[in-house]
Amino acid sequence: MQSLAGESVVVIGAGIGGLSTACYLADAEADVHVIEKNEQLGGRASRLEAEGFTFDMGPSWYLMPDVFERFFGHFDRTPTDYYDLTHLDPHYRIFFKDGDEVDITPDLERTKDLFETYEAGAGEALERYLEKSKENYEVGMEHFVYEDRERLRDYLDLDVARQARGLSLLGSMQGHVEKYFDHPKLQQIMQYTLVFLGGSPRNTPALYNLMSHVDFNLGVWYPENGLGGVIDGIADVGSELGVTYDTDRPATAIKGREGAFLVETPDEPLRADLVVSNADYAHTEQELLTPERRGYDADYWESRTYAPSAFLLYMGVEGDVPELAHHTLVLPTDWEEHFEQIFDDPAWPDDPAYYLCVPSKTDDTVAPEGHSNLFVLVPIAAGLEDTPELRESYRDLVLSDIADHTGTDLRDRIVYEKSFCVEDFADRYNSYAGTALGMAHTLRQTSLFRPPHRSKAVDGLYFTGSYTTPGIGVPMCLISGELTAEKVFEDHG
C-alpha cells in the first residue's frame, strides 16, 4: 500500500469526490482535514429536513452498485455495513404526454414484450442493444474509467487500441439509438439516462449507451435513508480512517506552495502540505487562486458547455399519490424542443420533460404518517434568469402539467414546499452559472478533454469531483476520488 505518513492534506468541499478522496488518502496514513462551506456533508447530495419530511436535495437514484462495492471493498468493508438496499420494482414509470404510460421493471422479458407493442422486432433489438451496452460498460469501466488516460499518448498504444475495438466511441447517442429503434418513444426510453450526464441525445457521445446496461441489467436501487444514508456511510468510513470534518467553514483563498500551503477560511487559516479541491473547479480557479496560479482563464470557463441547472420543488403532501412510482418520468412525445431550450436557445421550457421522486413509496421514515414525500425536477438551462416571479409562474405550470399528465393533483394537498433553482445552485455550491452538475459530457468534454486532477499551475494542488474524469454522477464522483488519490500517490507516495 502507498504511504503518505507525515503528509497533511486539506480537502476543500465535502461532496462525493471530496469525501472519497479523503478516505483513500487517510487510508494511506495522511493527516486529512475536510472543510465544507455548508452546514452538512454531501455537497449536492445534501438533505433537507423540515416539518417531519426528509428530502434528498440532489441525486436520488442509486445506480451502478458495483462502484459502491468497489469503494467500500477497498477498505475491507461492504455497503451493507452502512446501509441496506431495496431493488425497486418498477425501476421507474414513464408518463408520455399523449396519455401513454409504461413501467420499466427488473423483468427483462417483460420489457422486451413491452417494446414489441411499439415496434415489431424491438424486443430482439433491445437484447442486442443491451449486449452492446454491457460490452461497452465492462470494457469502458475497466480500461477507460478506472484508468485515467489524461494524455493523448495514453491512447496511442496497441493495448488501448485492442480494448477500444468495437466500442461505440464516436457519434451521438441519437445516431446510435436510431440504429436499433425507429419508434420515438423507445428512443426516449433508451436515452432518458442522459439527464444524469447533463447532456442531450445529440451532444452526448454514443459511448454512453453503457448507461442502459446500468439501467436494465444492474438495476435501480434505493439505499436505506436515501442518498443521504450513502453520504453517512462514506463519511463514517472516513471517520474510522481518521479523517477530520469541519462544516460551516468555507475556503476563501489557497495560498502558499507544496509543503507549505495556507488555506484561508473565515476562521484561522489551515496549513497543509497538499490541497485537494472538491469545490466547483471554476470557482476554485477564479475565486480562490490569484491569476498567475490558475490553469485556465475566464474565457475557458465561459466557452464550456454546461450541464443543465434545475427547477426543483420539494413538497410534503397530504395522503398518497398512487399514480406515481418511486421514480417517475413525464415526457413530451417530442422532447427536442426541451433540449433546444437547454442547450441551443436557453429559455424556461414551454413543454417540459421532468422527473418526480416519491421516496415515501419505499421508505416510511421520510414523511409523517398519512403524508407523501415528493419532489419534482425540471432540467433547465444553466445561467437562466431566476426570480421569485418566474419561479411562482413556473411552479403553477409544472403543478398543472403533473395533474394533466399523471392524474395526480397536488395543488390543494401541499403542507410543506420549498423551491430550489439556478440562483440557489450558484449560492449554495458556488456552481458556475448555476449548473446542477458541472460540465456536460459532450465529445469535446469527455475523458482527456476534461480538466485534469492535477493543477496545471500549482504543484501539490489537486482537483476531484464532476469536472474531472470520469465525470458527472455519484458513482463517477466516487471514482474521481480514487483517481485523484492515485495522482497524489504517484507524486508523494
From TrEMBL:
Task: For this entry, list what GO says about its biological process.
Answer: carotenoid biosynthetic process
Task: List GO molecular-function terms, semicolon-separated.
Answer: oxidoreductase activity
Domain (Amine oxidase): residue spans on this chain: 16-488
Query: To which pathway does this protein belong?
Result: Carotenoid biosynthesis
Residues in a coiled coil are none
Keywords linked to the UniProt accession: Carotenoid biosynthesis, Oxidoreductase
- The catalytic activity of this protein is classed by the Enzyme Commission as 1.-.-.-
This one is known as Phytoene desaturase family protein
What is the originating organism of this protein? Natronosalvus hydrolyticus
The top of its lineage is: Archaea, Methanobacteriati, Methanobacteriota, Stenosarchaea group, Halobacteria
Q: Which gene encodes it?
A: crtI
